[in-house]
Amino acid sequence: MASETSEAVSSTPDLKLQFAPFSSALEAGFWHQLTQKKLNDYRLDESPKCIKGYYYNGDPLGLPTRLTLEFSAFEVDGPTPARCCPATGTLYNTNTLDAFKTTDKKALLEKEAKEIWDAIHSEAALKDPSILCKFILLTFADLKKYHFYYWFCFPALCFPEGIKLVQQPSALEQVFSAKQIAALQEAYDGMCIKRETTAVPYFLMKYTDDTVQMVPLEDWDMFFTDTKKVTVGVYDPCTLSQHPGWPLRNLLVLLAYRWGSKLDTVEVLCFRDRTLQGSRSIQHSVIFQIKLPALPLNSACPKSVGWEKNPKGAMGPRMVNLSECMDPKRLAESSVDLNLKLMRWRLVPSLDLDKVVSTKCLLLGAGTLGCNVARTLMGWGVRRITFVDNAKISFSNPVRQPLYEFEDCLGGGKSKALAAVERLTKIFPGVNAEGYNMSIPMPGHPVNFSEATLSQAQRDIEQLEKLISEHDVVFLLMDTRESRWLPTVIAASKRKLVVNAALGFDTFVVMRHGLKTPAVSPSVPAGADSSTSCSSASSSSSTPAGSVPAVQGSSLFSNIPGHKLGCYFCNDVVAPGDSTRDRTLDQQCTVSRPGLAMIAGALAVEMMVSILQHSEGGYAVASSSDDRMNEPPTSLGLVPHQIRGFLSRFDNVLPASLAFDKCTACSPIVLDHYEREGFNFLSNVFNSSHSFLEDLTGLTLLHQETQAAEIWDMSDDESI
Amino acid sequence: MMHEMSMCGLDEKNFYCCCQLLLQQSEQLRDGWSWEAVQGSEEGYLKKTALRSVVIDSSSVWDHEGCGSDSEPHTSCHSQPDQPDEEEEQAAAVASGDTDSIKGDIDDEDEDDGVCAVSEGSSQMLQYEYHILLSCSYSTPVLYFRAFTLEGRSLSLEEVWSSVHPNFRLRLQNSPLNTITLQEHPLLGQPFFMLHPCRTEEFMRPVLQAAQDQHRPVNYVLSWLSVVGPVVGLDVPLQYSTQLHPAPPPSSGKPD
Ligand SMILES: [Zn+2]
């Protein structure tokens, strides 16, 4: 420990007195207050300001000798904490880093040292010995980055030849009897009461075998009628047993200057007064016998020292980066993170938050569903949110779409995708949101009117493909069925998790699309190549180890693994684009019960989070309503395929359904055509009637054979 | 006032009364509590600061303890998409280069042989600040706290806990006060951690009931503090309860 090494140093025969320097200690509130002062009072004023710190003589052993500045440092006349000694300081707050660098530190120190010296010359330091314990604080506050540069100086005047000790320092208890110690404590407390204070920085004392007398420094001439034996007390913040703290240093200069000619040695009591677990002790105070060096009469101000070393032990300033605790944006982020972590710590210890927070979400549609999905994602701490929408905000939107305001509707209305990003950033600056004001081409909505419309469609598709590639989860939140077709195809081809939400009047469906097994390269037989394949234990959702558990003997709708689950179009026996027949869901959102979008939007996000918590992610076996009583597959519970909600009954069911091999969006033949022919295939779909896809997939044939029937007849297309 | 409330709730008057008694005892025990009045208002709070030397484990993985599936470093929660880490590092490098380059004209300082060598060691000093406020909405005391380095940089909750108690999370989870949030101090407007008072009444009720049954005076704030303090490293000396002290007037006996 520090005290041991220094004991070894001072046990050399030389017995030189060495002081423990102050360590600056700043409370967090100090920087907050300095920031307020700089912004509201100082502004560009660089003139020196008076501030105040304090030091304490009651620390447990081993703590550094500190000079503390708290937020009240700027109220020079304010109270000092009980039993602490105040120290006044001069603050130089520069406007630029350059000014901070180029400030003449030596001159600042010399100026302060001169003031102390002058106070010693005059009677001022006798009357108010706290002048002996001053400090300088040089600062530069970079309030853009919340970086604070600072350098403390505790000016001390030096004797040219140093200071010698007459003998080894002793603990008070080695020199004083218990009775004397009690008398000393009583005398100190009495002096404090008399002076209406709780700490006295410097004092004089006389003692006998059973009495101790104490007076302030200024009473010297009356108190010490002869100078055979002089004892001086100093309130000592140091805890080292062999060294005094800094406040003694300038006092010795004062003693040498005023009484040096009469005094050869002086006894110094370094008064330390601590209370541990309610019991007070002063017996660890230290007594030094000091040979008072001579100061040449009428000499100029002695050499001074005092700039504080930085943590590296070098002579230099310090810098503290407070962006984490002062930048409101960072504060918002850590508060959001903390709240989420609390959920984990308290309720779901195995929750993998990072997986959720780091998920990149693409929201296709920034209407009622999109707004609600985005807000719930933010609640989960998701940082990357991208909107795609081509609509403008209209007057009916703000009451149902919580990211928009009345003002957003004026002047034709802002683009939803862009306004949503703006609002998300306002709600939480830590979000990384992007918006794309673009349309998604739809089956049965021709794009071949002109060269321009064709190339526009081509660009839109490329952009959409790029966006889907760059994100982890695609949310389908549009208000038309047809517009879901293209992203369903692209996401299925790219093996991206799709979460789909659609609303009826008082019904909704929230579902995850089946996640196709990764396309196996034909040259590598599955499982045969052992040299290049990864180890078998991969459980990451993005790279399932090629094998998805085969389900044998299961009933049609239970235990369907994720790769066999259907998509939004699998239950349809008609291709999208036929706007006359299939409009059970996906009506204009404005005709659904207003609470529905919030419910469905929230469920869509919660479903995503549950999927992410499953070790197999999108390949997880679909939970069904029957699993409600079983051991849940994730820490958050079930991972269903679909949630179908019926607001009229306030009821949800969890159906699961298989992928349909004639599906117009996710069947192998559609994906194969898309992957081989790309835009040519897609533009055929857009430009043709719905029979194109029905012919391709074999639905046309199916129609001829069976009566079309929907499994989920949720709501008919009522007139609006 | 309802009987229920007078038994378990703490109104402003009683809060100040309890605080005054606690201050008196703290003064006797020199425990360091002080009353901080807010300028220009009647409001105020109890404050105590403490300094501790702690061994800082910079690679603290506290956040991931007991979470078997977590093997990745916990970076993404703190990632800054707008501010790449690289940029931050550069800024830091520039900054430390800045401070290194500002040695200026203080070169003769090394000649000062009046300074004793102080070894810093591997430990770090942390300052802790505890505030007790009254929550008017819950009618209970609330504990605000923060910890910071000697430079005045506040620590994150993980840093605080890894520095105070290795088994801190366990203690917190098993305690009735397991809700800590980052909040703006209602009187100072600076960020503090707060032990949320939502369950204070729940664990204080039996304490107060027992005291009432035994016709024993009880200082609400002190009893509460002895429960919540240790959770955040704030020890309440036993002497508070053994010390003879005047009892606060039992709130249930008040005429209103
Ligand atoms: Zn399908």
UniProtKB/TrEMBL annotation, chain A:
> Native species of this protein?
Cottoperca gobio (Frogmouth)
Signal sequence span is none
UniProt keyword list: Autophagy, Biological rhythms, Coiled coil, Cytoplasm, Protein transport, Transport, Ubl conjugation pathway
Q: Name one GO molecular function term.
A: Atg8 activating enzyme activity
- State the CDD domains in the record: Apg7 (cd01486)
Give the residues annotated as coiled coil. 447-474
Q: Where is this protein primarily located?
A: cytoplasm
- Protein name according to UniProt: Ubiquitin-like modifier-activating enzyme ATG7
Region (Disordered) location: 519-545
List where in the cell it is found.
Cytoplasm; Preautophagosomal structure
Q: Which residues form the Ubiquitin-like modifier-activating enzyme Atg7 N-terminal domain?
A: 17-326
Identify one Gene Ontology CC term for this UniProt entry. Answer: phagophore assembly site
Q: Which gene encodes it?
A: atg7
What segments bear the compositional bias annotation Low complexity?
526-545
Q: Which domain of life is it from?
A: Eukaryota
Q: Name one GO biological process term.
A: protein modification by small protein conjugation
Assigned protein family: Belongs to the ATG7 family.
Which residue intervals define the domain THIF-type NAD/FAD binding fold in the entry? Answer: 343-617
InterPro entries the UniProt entry points to? Atg7_N (IPR032197), Atg7_N_1 (IPR042522), Atg7_N_2 (IPR042523), ThiF/MoeB/HesA (IPR045886), ThiF_NAD_FAD-bd (IPR000594), Ubiquitin-activating_enz (IPR035985)
UniProtKB/TrEMBL annotation, chain B:
Keywords, ordered alphabetically: Autophagy, Transferase, Ubl conjugation pathway
GO MF terms, alphabetically ordered: Atg12 conjugating enzyme activity
Basic and acidic residues bias: where? 63-75
Is the keyword Secreted assigned to this protein?
no
One Gene Ontology cellular component: cytosol
Q: Which InterPro entries match?
A: Atg3/Atg10 (IPR007135)
Region described as Disordered: spans on this chain: 63-114
Q: Which GO terms describe its biological process?
A: autophagosome assembly; autophagy of mitochondrion; protein modification by small protein conjugation
Which family does the record claim for this protein? Belongs to the ATG10 family.
Among PANTHER family, the record links this protein to: UBIQUITIN-LIKE-CONJUGATING ENZYME ATG10 (PTHR14957)
Protein name according to UniProt: Ubiquitin-like-conjugating enzyme ATG10
Origin species, per record, is Cottoperca gobio (Frogmouth)
Upper taxonomic classification of the species? Eukaryota, Metazoa, Chordata, Craniata, Vertebrata
Q: Which gene encodes it?
A: atg10
